[in-house]
Structure formats: C-alpha cells, structure tokens
Design brief:
The protein is an alpha/beta fold. The protein is built from nine helices and eleven strands. Helix 5 links the parallel strand 6 and strand 7.
Amino acid sequence: MEKIKSRSNQTVKLLRKLDNKKYRKQYGLFLAEGHKTIDDCIRAGFKINILALSSSKAQEYQRFLPYAEKTVILDDDIFEYASQTVSPQGVLAAVYYQPRAPQAPLKDCLILDNISDAGNLGTIIRTAAAAGIKDIYLLNCADAYNPKAVRSAMGGIFFVNVYEIDYGFLDIIAKNCKILGADMRGENYLKYTQKTNFALAIGSEANGLSQTVKDKCDNFLSIPMQNIESLNAAISAGILIFYLKSL
C-alpha cells in the first residue's frame, strides 16, 4: 500500500484530472467520494481502479480495500487537495465507467433538457433512482459524472442508465413512452390520471423546455404555486416523478 506525501505524485495528479470531463473520458474513470457513495458503488457492482484514503481515516475504511485494484494513503493535506471538497470524509475512489450508446426505454424514463447545474442534475438522478426510474436521457446537460453531480446523486448514479442524446433520439423514446413536459402553462399535474409508460421532460430553470422538446410532448404538466413564480428544477422533477409513479 503506497503512502503519498506530495502533490506532484502521479496518482494525485490523476485524481485531480478527473475533475475534468476530457480526462474522465480519456481514462474511463470518474470520482466517487464518501463512504456511503462507495458502499453503493460496490453494491451496484462497479469496479474501483484507485482507492485513496486519508492517513487519519485509513483504519476506518479498511473494508473497501478488497474491492480496489490499487489503494493509496495520502497525508491529510494531500487528500484535501486531491478531493477538492470543503469537508472531505477521507475516502475517495476512481471508478471505472464506459459511456453507453443510447438504448430505447422499456419503462418510465426522464428527459433532461439543458440542465446545466451539476448539483441539480445529481439531485434529479438521486430522485429518479429512489423512484425506480432506470433510464435518464440528457440533452445538452452538465456531465452526470462530474464530481459535483456524483456527490449530489448520493449513490444514485450507480443505479441508473445515463445517456447523452441528440434531439433526433426523442422519436425513439416517443415510440415506447408518452412524453410529458413540465411547463408552467400546462395542466395541473393532479388532474393528469393516465396510467402509461411516461418520459418526463424537465427543462432548465432559466428557460424551461426547448421548443424542439416541446414539439415532441404529448401533454404538459404544471405544479400550482402561490407567491413563488417557479421551483428549482430538481424539486419540480421530484414532485412530478413521484406523482406519476403513483398512478
């Protein structure tokens, strides 16, 4: 087990690089941080390339060692530098992944349209995983494997299929699902009662759904509100997801 005391170490440099999408794709790795997230990673069957432990937490996280190809112990200050989080938990993993070619949904799914905030994206992924939604389609969104998105997903990233698509793929989704757009001018979601496979489309907070996505929607749903003009995209997604799953 290697002990690292320098920022110039090649493993530390690699961990830092994985903050960048270019290098995540190049190495086929993304960062997962925190013991609960890594527990979910292992439970879901993902493979760990590098397990990094802070020196003060190394004994606490011995259970993760058998699941990693390589384990390193970093001085606490070096670990903080590698993790890039405000309050690191002392355990960080570089996890293997391969971007998947888009597949048609077999059941309910999400279409996320221009969700640029990685934290919102991760929260929506977490909610989808909790609701049992397997397929999530991204149109010009933040990277789902961005460290901030992975942290916000709280392990949910390991239980969903995330696909980056172009607008043409909406026609394939529409063959298997009714596309429902979240739009403040739509009908009250509580009045929608159709029990069918759905593809819930959520747009950005600033601009809502793009016109291209709107043109593919079968229905539009709104959340009635008082005093406030709009909700956070992740909150809206959560309300609509659990309502539609309850039908």
